[in-house]
Amino acid sequence: MAILDVLTYPDERLKQTPGPVAEFDDALRRIVSDLQETMDSASHCVGLAATQLGIAARIALVDVSKRPKIANHGRLVLINPEIKAWEGLAVGREGCLSVPDYTGNVIRAERIDIHWFDEHGEEHEARLEGFEARAVQHEVDHLNGLLFLDRLVSHRNDLFRRKVYKK
Amino acid sequence: MSKWYMLTVIGRDRPGIVARVTSALYQAGCNLGEASMLRLGGNFTIMLMVQAGDGADTLNKALAPVIEDLSLDCHVVGIDGSLHRHMEPDVRITVFGADRAGIVARVTTALAGAGLDILDLESDVAGSESEPVYVMHMEGRALNGVDPLQEALDALSEQGIETRITPVDTMMG
């Protein structure tokens, strides 16, 4: 296990879109361990994707279980995660280890249905909501070469966009 | 490391103010930092951190032609500041109600007493001349937690001021 350096924007490697993991072997589980240790070394971090460490593989970790009063499924080891359905929209604040000293508002689905494999090749499905769903969408974005900067909305206007009706 | 200044610019709104001001600063070798710029009551307002090696005189000299051309009011003051000093808000508060004297003072005094540190405040007067509606959004830090803020807001709602408080739970991934 090792704490690895997290790539920061504008490192081009954050834009890579790796193909699915094919082998569920010890090498894969070593990457999961490194992800875990790197994530644990950063305070308040609830998710990390392999691409943030420069590893081109569809692997991410999400664990929001330490946050108080938040619905969660414990520690999620997401291999080849695929979001199957989205429902509802919510604005929330996000930050990212790959974008230091900045947080911004992002619109995400409130609930998602997700399918994934764990590090032993077992298949899983779950419906996630709220903060946990947001974290998973953020990490799946990383595996598709996207940062939350790509999805920012202005807190000044976009949250409260008003319609003007003609009388 | 050259010194930071806070530049304040106000002028009747027209297209091109930001482009002209920032181009003049760029050509004078200044570095720009954090900024807040918006239109208030038909005026365009700029608050901008500027780093200038040669001091405030450089800034004023660089801006002089633009200020004259666009009839801007401009103020430069040296600040004890630097970048990367952000604080994270943990609460967002929306306040609205029929506009009347003292609404801002009452709301912000109650919230300050309950431990709110405002990081960002924007407000607007909506409605019409005869029936103005005051709308205010704040983001800040709840130094004593959200509960005392909620209590302070509940007391205000009895005075006809509508409020909503939402915790900001930043997802770090």
What is the secondary structure topology, with strand pairs?
The complex is a heterodimer of chains A (167) and B (173).
Chain A: H1 26-40, E1 47-49, E2 59-63, E3 75-96, E4 99-117, E5 123-129, H2 130-143, E6 152-153
Antiparallel strand pairs in A: 1-2, 2-3, 3-4, 4-5, 4-6
Chain B: E1 3-12, H1 17-27, E2 31-40, E3 43-52, H2 56-70, E4 73-78, E5 91-98, H3 103-113, E6 116-127, E7 132-142, H4 146-157, E8 162-167, E9 171-172
Antiparallel strand pairs in B: 1-3, 1-4, 2-3, 5-7, 5-8, 6-7
Helix pairs in contact in B: 1-2, 3-4
Provide a descriptive summary of the structure in words.
The complex is a heterodimer of chains A (167) and B (173). Chain A has a single domain (12-160), classed as Peptide deformylase (Peptide Deformylase, Alpha-Beta Complex). Helix content of chain A is 17%, strand content 35%. Chain A is built from 2 helices and 6 strands; from the N terminus they run αβββββαβ. In chain A, strands 1, 2, 3, 4, 5 and 6 form a 6-stranded antiparallel sheet that branches. In chain A, β3 (75-96) and β4 (99-117) form a beta hairpin. Mean pLDDT of chain A is 92; it is low at 158-164. The radius of gyration of chain B is 20 Å and the shape is globular. Chain B folds into 2 domains: 3-78, Alpha-Beta Plaits (2-Layer Sandwich); 91-167, ACT domain (Alpha-Beta Plaits, 2-Layer Sandwich), CATH 3.30.70.260. A 4-stranded antiparallel sheet of chain B has the order 2-3-1-4, with helices on one face. A 4-stranded antiparallel sheet of chain B has the order 6-7-5-8, with helices on one face. The A-B interface holds A 42, 44-49, 62, 67, 92-97, 101-103, 131, 134-135, 138-139, 142, 155-156, 160 and B 38, 84, 86, 88-89, 120, 122, 137, 139, 168-173.
